[in-house]
Design brief:
Strand order of the largest sheet: 5-10-6-7-8-9
Structural class: alpha+beta
Largest sheet: 6 strands, antiparallel
Radius of gyration: 27 Å
Shape: elongated
Oligomer: single chain
Distance between the termini: 31 Å
Order of helices and strands: HEEHEEHHEEEEEHE
Length: 197
Amino acid sequence: MKKKTILCALLILLTSGNMATAKVRKTAKTTVEQTTDGDEQERYEEIDNFDFLYENTGDDLNLDYDALTVNNLLDEAMSHLGARYRSGSKGPYTFDCSGFTSYVFKQLGEGNIGCSSRDQYARNMPVSRSDMRRGDLVFFTSPRSGRKVGHVGIVVDVDPINNTFNFIHASSSEGVKISNSNDGFYARRFIGVRRVW
C-alpha cells in the first residue's frame, strides 16, 4: 500500500509540468529563480517532511502503551510504600519480596511471573544490566541464599551514566521501600535483570 501511495504521489508531481510548484507541508528552504522567459518561480531545495506519503499504521501506539503500562505498574508498586514485610505474604497489606513483585504485576493482568524470587529469575527474559529499563525485575543474593537468588525488586529508574538504578522492593527489615543499587548491601549482592514484557 505504501509503495502505491509513493508511486501515485511521484506521478502526480511529474505530470504537473512544474515540480517547483508542488507544495509539501513543510520545507526547509526555498529560493526564487528566474526562468528563461523572465518569470520568477520558487524552487524547493530541500524537503524534510514526507509524512503525507505514508499512512498512519498505528505502529507507534505500542510505545505509548508500554510506557503507560510501566507507569501504571510503578504507580501500583508505589501505592504500597511502607507496607510491612512478612515472610511468605503475597499482599495486599504485607509482603515478602517475591510476594510484592508478583502482586504488583498481577494487578496489571500479568499473573504468571513466578512465585519465588528464584522462579521469577528463571521464568522471565534475561536482560543485560546495560539494557535495563523501568519496570524490569532485579535480583540479588540474600544472607541465607548464598550465591543463589534470594531477593527481587522492580526497577524504578536507571542512571546509565553512573550505571546505577533505584528499585522498589519488600525489604525484610523496613518493608516496601526504594533502594539504590549503590547501597553497599545491594551493590555486593546484585545478580541480574529479567524483563516480564
